[in-house]
Request: fold
Amino acid sequence: MTVDVKNAGSRAGVETVQLYIHEKYAPVSTPVKQLRGFERVALEPGETKAVTIKLAPEDLQLLDIDMRWRVVPGDFEIMVGKSSAELPLQGVLKVTP
Reply:
């Protein structure tokens, strides 16, 4: 996933873009938000940079009832923002068998 990050301020700064997932209907209980990637980016005043965070199949695995790691087909909520409390970009990734 690639997002543009802009420094709208008058000073240089660093922003941390965070990517979280949540499987909507998992066969076992999962956290509401699982951090699956982040990237820190330094920005000059008014500067915009593209930030890419990649999701691999391993990022979608869960430990099933038989204690095996696997990817379960279903809908994964993808949430991106600067903190777990502020996730303005959201979408759904559908995983099919």
